[in-house]
Amino acid sequence: MGVLGTTPIPLRGSSSTEGFFQRPPKLVNQFIEDVAFRRAFEAFLPVDIRTSVEDEFEKFADEVLTPKVFGNIADAERNLSYVKTWDMWGNRVDEVVLSNGWNNLVALVYRAGLAFLLPTTSEKVLTLLGSFRLRMKSLMAGLVVLCNF
Questions:
Q1: Does 24 fall in a domain?
Q2: DSSP string for 1-43
Q3: Adaptive response protein AidB N-terminal domain: from which residue to which, for each copy (predicted)?
């Protein structure tokens, strides 16, 4: 007898054909849907700068949800980056070897203008815009590819 006089139900494990199946999540534009990000975006950036970059952020957030980008992510995860220390003649080269998927993702980030160097000036607006761009880059669904060094 089980708890309170009930007969326990035998537990069965899940398999590929029966048991528990979870629906995949629906990926949406994070620039629009992330309330905390939008609140900070609107609170910290001046209106003129915010309106000038808003369309750019929204387009990028849509672009990273395309099958092409997910294919690049899969390739970057399947073919991990590494450091090539020596060439075939025994010479020290120390170069980073990246997969095609990784290179395509890097190109996407540069094309979208989301790669930046921290400003050397004291202009807080540039620093804020840079940090928003960095945050936007990290928020994009699936666009997290680890470089393993």
A1: no
A2: --GGGPPPPPP----SSSS--PPPPPP--HHHH-HHHHHHHHH
A3: 28-115
